[in-house]
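Many introductory courses stop at the sequence. We go one step further.
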Amino acid sequence: MPEYRYTARNELGNKIEGVIDAATESEAAATLSAGGLFPLEMAPVLKQTVTGRVRRVSGQQLASFYSQLADLLRGGVPLLRSLKILHDQTSNTNLKFVLDNIYRRVESGETLAESMTRYQIVFGEMGVQMVRAGSEGGFLEESLVHVAEYTETQDDLKSRIIGALVYPVLLSVFLVSVVSAILVFIVPSFQPLFEDLRKRGELPQMTEWLLFISAQAKFFLLGVIPILVLGIIWYHFWSRTENGRRIIDRFKLRLPIVGRVYEGFAVARFCRVLGTLLKNGVPIVKSLDISGGATGNRILSDAIQHASENISGGSRLAGPLAESGCFPRSIVEMISVAEESNTLDSVLIDISGSLEKRNWRSLDLAVRFIEPLMLMLLGMVILCLVLALMMPIFNMSNM
C-alpha cells in the first residue's frame, strides 16, 4: 500500500508530522481527519528514492548506535526522544537518513522493530529480530546491549580476518603480476637469440614451452580480462539468488582447512545468539528462528530450522542438530548434557567463547602455512623461468 508523509495539526493546534499508509492521498487525508487531525501537507513517500539512498553502515557505528540507544532508554529517556537525540548527533549521513525515517514511522504508530525491518540492509536480520524479541519480552535495553556487543565482535572478527589474509593475497597478486610481466615483456626479447638453436633442433624443451606460452600470453590476457569482468558481473547477480546462495554456502563448508574455520565461526555465532536469547527468557523455538539467521549460512540455517520444527514436536535440540551432520560431535554432546542439567543458555555462551578461541588458532596456523607456501611457489616459478632462459645461453657459450 502506498505511504504518505503528512504534516497536520491536532485539536490543540500543535503541529504533528508522520507517515500513514493509504490507497490514495484523499483516503489518507480522510483517515487523519477521522483521527482528529487537520492535514496541512501531504506527499507520497517514494520508496525507490529511499532504498536508493540507503547503504550499509560500518559495524563500529552500528554498535555505537545500539549501545547509546540502550543507555538512553535505561536512563528513562522515551524512545522517540532517544531516536531524535541519536539522529541529531550522528555524523554519518546514511545513518542520519535512516534514523529520520525510523523516527517518523515510530511517531506514526509503528514499533521500533517494524521500522527497522524496512532497513535490514543497515541493521541486519539478526539485529532486527533481537530488537523485536526484546520489545515483545520487555528486555529491549538488554537486547540492544547484546546486539551492540555482537555487532562489535563481528566487526572485529571481520577486521582480523581481512588483516590475516592481506599478506597472502598481496603475495598472490605480486606473483601473478611478475610472471605476467616476464612472459609479456622480457621473454619475447630473447626469441631472436634462440632462432639458430631452434633451427638446429638444439633448443631445450623447457625453453620451447616458455616461448610458446609467452607468445600466447598477450592474447590470453586480452581474452581473459573481459571474460573475468563478465564472470564477476554474472557472479554478483547469481550469488544473490536463492539457489546461488545455497551452492556458495555449501561450497564454503566443504573447503579444505578454511571450511572448518568458517564453519566454526558460524556455529560460534549461533551458540552465542541462542544462549543470549535463552538467558533473556525468549522461548527456545523463537530463539532458534532468530539465531539461525546469525550463522550467515543457508545450509546451517536449514539444519537449525529443522531442529526448531522437531522441538515444536517435543524433541530435544541435540538430536536434530546431530542428525543434520553440520555441527561438530563435541558441540552436540555438550548441548545434550546442558539440556539434561537445564543450563543450556550459559553452556551455549561458553561454547561460543571456546569455539572462537579455537577458530582463531586454526586461522593463524592456516595463514602461517599459506605464507611460506606462497613464497616457495614464487621461488619455484621464478627458478623455472630463469632456467628456461639461461639454458640456451649456456649451450651457446659451450659451442
